[in-house]
């Protein structure tokens, strides 16, 4: 019997590339629900936190809708969570972009401005060097399959080097992907990254649908 497609809750706080993310996931076979409140994410197989814009404004909106609870409850229950662009930054404790305002704090570390002499924001394609064995990284060594579309001025700085899943270079080496099994995020936009990005999302969905992932939050 063919298992049902994974049920993915995409959190909507009106600061994200929601349509593109949703279409990409649906194109890969997932069932997608848009969640504006924690109750609308309840029972999902996984949660996606996309985002574009300012860290502080995003956290204000997320807390006003109770979506911080949706993320924290998912993490506590072992339900896979994926942050995209601003979404990965929000998983950390704080950001230089919004001093004094706490992030979701499900990953230890902060967010800082890129320390580069190059033009900011970084807009365009950049190659990611993946940590060996990272489930988001491609098995194929073809550099095109590790090249993704970035739009950002800030980057994550995990408190533990083990949380760095991938790096890229833009006048400095910075964290381009971070997390741990079940709780990961990427600084780039996989939904805008052609084949490389869709394959990454496909690998993530495969992990969500795997028996091991299902058992983790059964």
Give the strand order, joined by hyphens, for the main sheet.
2-1-3-4-13-12-11-8
Taking the sheet with the most strands, its summary is: 8 strands, mixed
Report the span from N to C terminus.
20 Å
Q: How would you name the oligomeric state of the polypeptide chains in this document?
A: single chain
Low-pLDDT parts are 211-218
- By CATH, the topology is Rossmann fold
Query: So what's the overall shape?
Result: globular
Beta-strand segment tally: 13
State which percent range the strand residues make up: 25-35%
Radius of gyration: 16 Å
CATH class: Alpha Beta
Helical coverage, percent range: 25-40%
Average pLDDT taken over every residue: 94
Secondary-structure arrangement, i.e. CATH architecture: 3-Layer(aba) Sandwich
Number of helices: 7
Count of the separate structural domains: 1
The sequence of SSEs as H and E is: EHEHEHHEHEEEEEEEEEHH
CATH superfamily: Class I glutamine amidotransferase (GATase) domain
Q: Helix- and strand-based class?
A: alpha/beta
């Amino acid at each position: 019997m063919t298992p049902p497609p994974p049920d993915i809750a995409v959190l909507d706080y009106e600061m994200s590339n929601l349509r593109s993310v949703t279409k990409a996931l649906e194109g890969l076979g997932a069932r997608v629900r848009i969640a504006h409140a924690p109750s609308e994410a309840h029972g999902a197989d996984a949660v996606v936190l996309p985002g574009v814009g300012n860290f502080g404004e995003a956290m204000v909106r997320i807390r006003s809708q109770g979506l911080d609870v949706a993320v924290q409850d998912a993490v506590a229950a072992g339900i896979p969570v994926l942050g995209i662009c601003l979404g990965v930054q929000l998983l950390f404790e704080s950001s230089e972009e919004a001093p004094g305002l706490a992030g979701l704090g499900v990953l230890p570390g902060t967010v800082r401005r890129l320390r580069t002499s190059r033009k900011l924001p970084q807009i365009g394609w950049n190659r990611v060097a993946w940590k060996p064995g990272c489930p988001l990284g491609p098995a194929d060594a073809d550099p095109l399959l590790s090249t993704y579309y970035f739009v950002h001025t800030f980057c994550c700085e995990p408190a533990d080097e083990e949380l760095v899943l991938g790096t890229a270079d833009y006048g400095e080496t910075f964290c381009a992907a971070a997390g741990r099994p079940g709780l990961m995020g990427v600084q780039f936009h996989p939904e805008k990254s052609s084949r490389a990005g869709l394959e990454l999302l496909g690998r993530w969905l495969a992990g969500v649908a795997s028996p091991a992932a299902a058992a983790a939050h059964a």
